[in-house]
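Moderator note: this is an archived Q&A kept for reference. The question asked for a predicted structure of one protein chain; the sequence and the answer are reproduced below.
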Amino acid sequence: MFLKKALNTLRHKVLIATLCLLAVSLCDVIFSGNAWAQNGGDNRTIAPQVPLADRRQKNKVFLEHADYLVADEKVSTEYQILRGNVVFRKEGVFMYCDSAYFYDASNSLDAFGNVKMNQGDTLFVYSDVMYYSGTDEIAQLRHNVRLENKDMTLYTDSLDYDMIENLGYYFDGGRIVDSENELVSVYGQYDPDTKDAEFLFDVELINDKYVMRTDTLHYNTSTHIADIVGPTTIVSDSNVIYSQRGWYDTEADKATLFDRSLLVGNNGIKLTGDTLYYDRNAGYGEAFGNMLLTDSVHNSLLDGNYGFHNERENKSFATHRARAREVNGRDTLYLHGDTIRTHMLEDSSRVMIAEPNVRFYRFNIQGLCDSMTYVQRDSMLYMDRHAILWSGERQISGNSIYIHMNDSTADYALLPDYGFMAEFIGEVYFNQLSGKEMKAYFKNQELRQLDVNGNVQLIMFPMEEDSTYNKLVDAESSYMILLLKPKQEIDKITMWPEVTGNVTPLYLAKKSQYYLAGFAWYDVLRPQSPDDIFIIPKEMEELFNAPTNNRRVHRN
């Protein structure tokens, strides 16, 4: 009986001892957060990381959690195998995955399945696989990579993230999407601190208004400003922009472009300048320095040191050596005014206004006036205030001259409020004609007929058969028609209803009889070449300061 009790007591003590050993072992497992592994019969316990260690040690990776931790020296002595809800921490960065190889000695890891890396509450990176090297502190994320930073998302299949520089970059194609744009390229990099992104090779910036194409582009996902640093094309429904340098605010839709950037509208208008400012919402382009506006529809060019074009209102402006050029085949009209403006009427006809100090040149006709307006609808060119035209040896002047254009050549000219025509024939001799109203008709760019109505006054020096001049003819009437042959030879003069006048031999004529009242020969003001239109002689300033239809006698 005693022996039986003793045996029972011994069994009880053995059982208690066994349970104590199991309890101690279980406590050790719970404390370390590790499990034993049984692989090929080689078992060992993994020493736990110190729970209270400083998690912000430089380049130190801590294992925070795993459902299972396995170590097998037969597989590798360099890494541990982790499975289930794996969590790592490197300073302020947390890394999550389904499973991983952890290289504790080098602070490196390979992560697989539902990989996630986040820094604070603003930066999140997702992928299928991640390889982190503790040596260079670079995380290589592969397959279905997504980087999110506030309202920006980066998509790629291969992303390297530099923990030291806090910089992510892809090299095999990717795209960035923010609240304004989508950007795609072969290579790209992104800095979460500055929100700066750089894109290289086959770059496209895409939104619902336009597509920007280039090989090099800098972009900020916070300001949505794109820095253009290489040949770039911006294509929209209304125009195409070509630029090599500048910036484009994609949120405000405003651009400042340099190095002779070019704006090409779908309406045939091209605008360029040393510096080009463009507001897409307003449809407004502004050019600074060597501005040039080309209108291929109307075969015209407008240039100056400053100008603008509003593509929505079809308005243009040029100043500071402003010049308009109207091209007709090989013939070009060169026109200058202090400012030149163009706009479109409701019927899409064009209006051009130049003022003041207007001068123009074409090989067969030159002119000047204080202001000029061309209206395409009625094909009329209106020259106002001290208007003067030269063609060959003839000068026509008046308060206003209205010229009707036919295919960019003069068809007829009307002087509705006083007209004066003078023709230089040699030495001090000028044929002269004045009247209240004049109308001149042109054929093949030559004057062929001149009608004068009201207060007709005429002075002529008829050429004798020996090509000399020996008499002066003066006449007055109410109406006159002058007909000319080709090469501007006088064919016939008809005056009515009553004609008064005299024929005076030159040796009896006084010099005061040589000129009509109001005669002035303005050859010193005549543009002699296309570049001469920019020269404003002091005599021209004096003329424009004088009242119209003055009767000064000017001899030279």
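Archived answer notes: The mean pLDDT is 87.
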